[in-house]
Amino acid sequence: MRLTHAPMRPETPPVLLTAFNRTDTLEGVLRRLAPLAPRRLYVACDGPRASVAGEGDRVQAVRDMLRNPPWTCEVRERFLESNQGCGRAMSGAISWFFEHEERGVVLEDDCEPAPDFLPFCAEVLERHASDERVMSVLGTRHARERPEQRESYSYSRLFTPAGWASWRRAWQRYRFDISGWRAEFGPKGLASRGLGGPSVAGWSRKFDWPASHGANAPAWAFQFTYAHFLHDGVCVLPRTNLITNTGFGENATHTAKGSPWANMPCGKIGFPLVHPASIEVDAYADRMRERFQLNHRPWLEKKYWHVRKNLGLVSLRQARGW
């Protein structure tokens, strides 16, 4: 009798965990990571704002938690003395992470991973390690699941920063200052990637925002989305959602208002993974996210949708397009 063995899964990838001044959401992320016990944990925290009373104490409490995760691992820290803001602090932390690691997972203090997320990232990072077109692995799925989808994941053009993984080779394409994006690529470049008119207009507005601030941009993630478009890159998109964002609320930096995308349920990806036969953009998933999460619609339809939501005429499932 011949014995067969299931192939060994790749080692849990190193994790960069970024935080600022919220211990409540950070506690949830650490609790989710503990059973997965990544051997190398990189932690980063921006400095407190001098203008905000009592923030120094809250930031210190966060740093104490980051230094003492609830599992045994190697911890490397990047704690800033002064406040650089979300844009510079986050992009600097990610660059620091990929200076030390060839690949890894990036989590913020409000992105709770499902149990399958890190094992999923480990296998997909290994499989696509040398494929230059694949630039990131996503954990958040905004599009409705498709029961008929047999593969464990598909591919998207649309990067999202809520729980993701990547490689040093992809992050080397990142630029914080994209003030010249219109001259370099512009709306015509977006249209050449197969985007429709409302989508081209929507992404142009999103890129114009950090571009208008140049080296002082208050955000970092739109610039990595731009790098995906510029280099015709794609993201790995899981069949089911694998990240729960718990950070919407009054203490959030950019998500102070409530959102239908807060606290989304997570699923199970299932192992062994079923890999797609080829790299093709999932037009259905991208279209769903464009319409419902990003609201890239014709002007009149967008206004109609806003009015319905403001009047409370849209259910949670309708708001998500589910």
Description:
With about 325 residues, the chain is an alpha/beta fold. The chain has a domain at about 15-175 and about 235-285: Spore Coat Polysaccharide Biosynthesis Protein SpsA, Chain A, CATH 3.90.550.10. It has helices at about 25-35, 55-65, 85-100, 115-125, 170, 180-185, 185-190, 195-215, 220-230, 285-295, 300-310, 315-320, and strands spanning about 15-20, 40-45, 75-80, 105-110, 110-115, 135-140, 155, 165, 235-240, 245. The strands form two sheets. It has an eight-stranded mixed beta sheet with strand order 3-2-1-4-8-6-9-7, sandwiched between helices. Strands 5-10 form a two-stranded antiparallel sheet. Helix 7 crosses helix 8 (about 195-215). The model is unreliable at about 1-5 (pLDDT under 50).
Observed structural traits:
Spore Coat Polysaccharide Biosynthesis Protein SpsA, Chain A; 322 residues; disordered N terminus; 10 strands; alpha/beta; eight-stranded mixed β-sheet; single chain
Average pLDDT taken over every residue: 92
Distance from N terminus to C terminus (CA atoms, Å) equals: 49 Å
The CATH architecture term of the domain at 15-177 and 233-283 is Alpha-Beta Complex
Overall body shape: globular
Q: At the third CATH level, what is the topology name of the domain at 15-177 and 233-283?
A: Spore Coat Polysaccharide Biosynthesis Protein SpsA, Chain A
Biggest sheet character: 8 strands, mixed
Which strand order do you get reading across the main beta sheet? 3-2-1-4-8-6-9-7
Q: Mind telling me the CATH superfamily name of the domain at 15-177 and 233-283?
A: Spore Coat Polysaccharide Biosynthesis Protein SpsA, Chain A
